[in-house]
Design a protein that fits this description.
315 residues, alpha+beta, Immunoglobulin-like, four-stranded antiparallel beta sheet
Length: 315
């Protein structure tokens, strides 16, 4: 009888624990759901992006700041997702994450209509559940046409600052830098440092004539494969005369891949020859009368020693 009572008591305790756990999990799950819902709501972008300026190959957009957003992604394509009757229609292209409330998108096709929408991203990397309203019918200029939009708008009214957005590795001697806004004609200066030994990597910078918000960096030597580097923009100025700020706006790290394209500046045959010469140079053997005499003397001495010891062993 005592055992039956103990078993009943144990079953009651287990049932109580299970009920308490289920109730607690229900409360936690409900809180998590409501919390997630409020987070996604706070990331909603309230309005469509606005056109600031455009040319034949690029457009510059700006948008309203979202309080909970740490970054933004611009989605775009030549077909409107908002106007489409196809429920599976998607934007084909998107930018990297942008920390400013504006950016220049390039390259685009000339004389082509584009559609743009914004997604906000929080510091944990969560994106808003929906796109912003769509900016419709942005027609890029025909080649050779100066847009009236560009002529009438001033960069002084922009709500973001000049910053370095991305670094693209073109080949083992060339980098492409993309900035948040078009650059002025003033020289751009950068400093590149190899992370492993903190060695400076000399380079020169020129503006990219095909894209106003880009600059091309030429490395004097070559970039090493599978290596990390840090690039700091020392001097850069946008078309409104604003200079790049010190700190995160002008500093980015990048890592080279295991294989890189060979720069056109390097002739493959001469590059291979110079590499071979470097490899064999430490083991080159000098030749001349003095060196030849030393070699002959060494050979005669060797033969004499062999002959002497053979006679000694025979005796």
């Amino acid at each position: 009888m005592k055992n039956i009572k103990k078993i009943l008591s144990l079953v009651s305790i287990l049932f109580f624990v299970q009920s308490t756990f289920a109730a607690t999990w229900s409360v936690v799950n409900t809180w998590a759901t409501s919390s997630t819902g409020s987070t996604s709501t706070s990331l909603e972008v309230p309005s469509a992006p606005r056109l600031v300026s455009k040319t034949a190959t690029w457009v510059t957009l700006e948008w309203d700041k979202v309080a909970a957003a740490a970054a933004y992604i611009v989605n775009y394509w030549k077909v409107s997702v908002a106007k489409s009757t196809d429920p599976n229609e998607q934007y084909t292209d998107e930018t990297d994450q942008i920390t400013q409330t504006g950016t220049t998108i390039t390259p685009l096709d000339p004389n082509t209509k584009y559609y743009f929408s914004i997604v906000a991203v929080d510091k944990e990397g969560n994106e808003s559940n929906t796109f912003s309203s769509e900016l419709w019918d942005v027609m890029t200029d025909a080649l050779g046409v100066v847009s009236s939009t560009w002529a009438t708008l001033t960069w002084a009214t922009a709500t973001w600052s000049l910053s370095l957005n991305t670094i693209d590795i073109i080949d083992n001697k060339t980098l492409s830098l993309t900035f948040s806004v078009p650059l002025s004609s003033d020289p751009v200066q950068v400093k590149i440092t190899k992370t492993s030994n903190n060695a400076d990597v000399p380079s020169t910078v020129t503006l990219d004539t095909a894209a106003p918000n880009k600059a091309i960096v030429k490395i004097e030597s070559v970039l090493d494969i599978s290596s990390s580097y840090s690039l700091s923009v020392i001097a850069a100025k946008d078309t409104a005369g604003n200079t790049i700020k010190d700190g995160v706006d002008g500093i980015k790290e990048f890592t080279t891949p295991a294989t890189m394209a060979l720069s056109p500046d390097l002739n493959s045959a001469s590059w291979a020859t110079s590499t071979w010469e470097l490899a064999v140079k430490p083991t080159e053997i000098k030749s001349g009368p003095a060196e030849n005499l030393i070699i002959v003397t060494a050979l005669i001495l060797s033969f004499w020693l062999v002959f002497f010891y053979r006679r000694k062993l025979i005796k």
